[in-house]
């Protein structure tokens, strides 16, 4: 009897989830997109092992993880700067690596950045939900976060690994400069709020996660008091709770919210690798 090919999770680490490119098109039913926080990094990992770009892989947060492959496979790790060990062989981020069945693959703690993406030829073949295999940490859709001892099925390889020796994963900057477009509730804030938002530095809070990046810095005063009925929220929306500290919504954001949105970040990808304490500055769109 032939046993299905799997990945056995030996050490799940702080937070490792199955991610693909998400489930767009369901926001009207209250379902956010989810998916990899850095879609480009997952696409790269998939190309390196010969997968379609939308194939599911593992998103590994900060502390690394260890898995065992039950079949020979090509693997690739992209994203944060991490040590990679395949059995006794050292590996590199951004490089395809072919390993035999039974290999223990160790992805160590991030030296720089926060998140890594592991692709395996054939992809992670868990059952899709609404067209995606992504874990949504807010709603609970998709497979649960990985635990030690989990077994994940692998799909059949459909392509050949990329003919490259190494690709370069960019080093996360110490200071992020984010472009902020107008939000639907700009009129709820005073001129002082915009002076502070664009004129001062914020830092990433330790309580940030896949739902949102919480910032610490100058509080943004409101011009309008009271409560706001819940309204739609999009990726990159900068919501300002009652304490005046901005919150940038990421892939697992809710689809509605009751705090005013002062603006929308046009590209949240750099936040995927922003560690707590990273400086964030906002600027308006180029005109």
TrEMBL record:
Superkingdom, taxonomy of origin: Bacteria
MF annotations from Gene Ontology: ATP binding; hydrolase activity
Keyword annotations from UniProtKB, A to Z: ATP-binding, Hydrolase, Nucleotide-binding
InterPro entries reported in the protein's UniProt record: CT_A_B, Cyclophilin-like_dom_sf, PxpC
Segments forming domain Carboxyltransferase: 28-287
Protein name: Allophanate hydrolase
Organism, scientific name: Micromonospora arida
């Amino acid at each position: 009897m032939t046993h299905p090919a799997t990945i056995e999770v030996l050490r799940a680490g702080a937070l490792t989830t199955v991610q693909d490119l998400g489930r767009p098109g369901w926001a009207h039913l209250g379902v956010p997109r989810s998916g990899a926080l850095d879609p480009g990094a997952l696409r790269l990992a998939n190309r390196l092992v010969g997968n379609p770009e939308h194939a599911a892989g593992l998103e590994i947060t900060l502390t690394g993880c260890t898995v065992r492959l039950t079949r020979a496979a090509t693997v690739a790790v992209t994203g944060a700067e991490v040590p990679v060990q395949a059995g006794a062989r050292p590996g590199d981020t951004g490089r395809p690596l072919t390993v035999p069945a039974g290999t223990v693959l160790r992805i160590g703690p991030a030296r720089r950045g926060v998140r890594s993406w592991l692709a395996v030829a054939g992809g992670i073949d868990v059952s899709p939900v609404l067209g995606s295999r992504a874990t949504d940490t807010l709603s609970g859709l998709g497979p649960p976060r990985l635990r030690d001892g989990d077994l994940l099925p692998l799909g059949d390889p459909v392509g050949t690994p990329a003919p490259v020796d190494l690709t370069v994963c960019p080093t996360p900057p110490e200071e992020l400069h984010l472009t902020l477009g107008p939000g639907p509730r700009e009129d709820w804030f005073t001129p002082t709020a915009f002076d502070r938002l664009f004129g001062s530095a914020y830092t990433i809070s330790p309580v940030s996660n896949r739902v949102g990046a919480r910032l610490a810095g100058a509080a943004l005063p409101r011009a309008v008091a009271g409560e706001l009925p819940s309204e739609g929220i999009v990726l990159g929306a900068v919501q300002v709770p009652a304490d005046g500290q901005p919150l940038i919504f990421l892939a697992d954001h809710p689809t509605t919210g009751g705090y005013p949105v002062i603006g929308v970040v046009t590209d949240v990808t750099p936040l995927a690798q922003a560690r707590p304490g990273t400086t964030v500055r906002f600027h308006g769109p180029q005109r």
